[in-house]
């Protein structure tokens, strides 16, 4: 009953051939779109303003720092994803390298990341959607516009738009990855076009004087903003969750992860530079639509509606990919016996984890509708940074314990790239607020309780007597 019993790589691959398999339908283009769909959303349309208050015009450096942490971790993810093309992302990789107990911890950690990220973004989506509706003279009843207590001075009971959008996404994911990827690809193309239009329109209104002083809060401000805007990068790891549904994992997964991360980092740096060049950074105080504000400063109000549309589509694809990743991790944990078997049942027609999708989607929708989530960005960040740290450790461990494995993609610069990923992630974690650590430890305590009461005894490895 060892806490650190492991599944071999061969056993992981054999699991995918024992009936509960998912449909392979994704190529490099789809995976790149999946990654961009998850990354570009709340970060670029909302957090750029909040980050500017912490770093000033040096926000561009904050995005580079956060992007470097992700880049080093992405190279480790790419090696693992190509080596073990099995659903479950870093949870699965940890099971093979660090043992069952660590795999459970990281799986429970990813539940926090993906589920709460979906709920958090749904609340932001609701705000932009209601803003768009108001342009057409449509106003929802006050009670259905936000979660209870979310808006001071107003009697709000239920965030109806947030609930509905998550349930629509749940329906798409339950129907199948082919339908979901088509929807995602279309929305990603539109929102990238909106971002590119903002760049083309906004660059002519930049005033270099607004970039002075460039670093008003010093490096502390840059690093604090990096820890916050790290939320903007959450999602590229969801590409790895699609391993079991990828046509050619050894080639397509590394490309999808790296391409999506590189494209989004470039767009973040350019957009944040243009925004702080148009608007003095102090004017972002209390603003939840910084891109629209920049356009208003530039006198381009006609384009604000397009930005609202881009934000809505951007957040929609983030929720789609986050919930997708969540269902695949639940599927993998259930297939290993760590969660009830019902979560790994595959629909005979759609070849999707049907029950898990509807269960998790409903929970995410209710959380977004009933709980104010304005403080959850950092909580989601700490879960993600912990996951990135563990996968980097896993690459180092596996290179030592099983050096002769065939690796379709090899992380370059060993061992320095994984070590840099670990160092960057731990450094950013250290910049998060103490309340974030407290909430994270409470969540982990609940996970440990579930593991020792249920999962350890019902694990497939436990039943095999290993």
From TrEMBL:
Pfam families, alphabetized: AA_permease_2
Gene3D superfamilies: Amino acid/polyamine transporter I
Membrane-topology annotation of the record: Multi-pass membrane protein
Cellular component GO terms, alphabetical: membrane
Transmembrane regions: 26-47, 59-78, 90-116, 128-151, 157-174, 186-205, 217-236, 257-281, 301-325, 354-373, 379-399, 411-429, 435-454
Record keyword Transferase present: no
GO molecular function, one term: amino acid transmembrane transporter activity
Intracellular or extracellular location(s): Membrane
Domain of life of the source: Bacteria
Keywords, sorted A to Z: Membrane, Transmembrane, Transmembrane helix, Transport
InterPro entries: AA/rel_permease1, AA_transporter
PANTHER family: CATIONIC AMINO ACID TRANSPORTER 4, INNER MEMBRANE TRANSPORTER YGJI-RELATED
Record-given protein name: Putative amino acid permease YhdG
The organism of origin for this protein: Marinithermofilum abyssi
């Amino acid at each position: 009953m060892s806490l650190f019993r492991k599944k071999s790589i061969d056993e992981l691959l054999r699991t995918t051939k024992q009936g509960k398999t998912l449909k392979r339908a994704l190529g490099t283009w789809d995976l790149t779109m999946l990654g961009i769909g998850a990354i570009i959303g709340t970060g670029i349309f909302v957090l750029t303003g909040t980050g500017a208050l912490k770093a000033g015009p040096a926000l561009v450096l904050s995005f580079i720092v956060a992007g470097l942490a992700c880049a080093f971790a992405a190279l480790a993810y790419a090696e693992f994803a190509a080596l073990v093309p099995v659903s479950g992302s870093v949870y699965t990789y940890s099971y093979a390298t660090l043992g069952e107990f660590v795999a459970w911890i990281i799986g429970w950690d990813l539940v926090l990341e993906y589920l709460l990220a979906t709920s958090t973004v749904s609340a932001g989506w609701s705000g932009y959607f209601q803003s768009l509706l108001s342009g057409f003279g449509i106003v929802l009843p006050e009670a259905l516009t936000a979660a209870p207590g979310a808006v001071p001075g107003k009697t709000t009971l239920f965030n109806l738009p947030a609930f509905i959008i998550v349930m629509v996404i749940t329906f798409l994911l339950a129907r199948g990855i082919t339908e979901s990827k088509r929807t995602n690809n279309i929305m990603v193309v539109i929102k990238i076009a909106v971002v590119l239009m903002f760049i083309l329109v906004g660059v002519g209104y930049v005033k270099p004087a607004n970039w002075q002083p460039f670093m008003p809060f010093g490096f502390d401000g840059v690093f604090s903003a990096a820890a916050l805007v790290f939320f903007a990068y959450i999602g590229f790891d969801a590409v790895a969750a699609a391993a079991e549904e990828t046509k050619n994992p050894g080639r397509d997964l590394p490309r999808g992860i790296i391409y999506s991360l590189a494209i989004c980092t470039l767009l973040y740096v350019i957009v944040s530079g243009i925004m702080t060049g148009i608007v003095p950074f102090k004017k972002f105080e209390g603003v939840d639509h910084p891109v629209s504000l920049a356009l208003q400063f530039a006198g381009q109000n006609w384009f604000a509606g397009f930005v609202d549309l881009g934000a809505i589509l951007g957040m929609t694809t983030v929720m789609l990919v986050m919930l997708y990743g969540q269902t695949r991790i639940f599927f993998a944990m259930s297939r290993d016996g760590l969660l009830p078997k019902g979560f790994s049942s595959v629909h005979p027609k759609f070849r999707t984890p049907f029950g898990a999708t509807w269960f998790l989607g409903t929970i995410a929708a209710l959380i977004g509708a009933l709980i104010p989530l304005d403080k959850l960005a950092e909580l989601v960040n700490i879960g993600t940074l912990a996951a990135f740290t563990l996968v980097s450790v896993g690459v180092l461990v596996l290179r030592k314990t099983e050096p002769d494995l065939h690796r379709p993609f090899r992380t370059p610069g060993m061992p320095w790239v994984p070590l840099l990923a670990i160092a960057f992630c731990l450094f950013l974690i250290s910049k998060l607020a103490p309340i974030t650590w407290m909430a994270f430890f409470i969540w982990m305590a609940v996970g440990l309780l579930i593991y020792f009461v249920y999962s350890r005894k019902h694990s497939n490895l436990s039943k095999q007597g290993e």
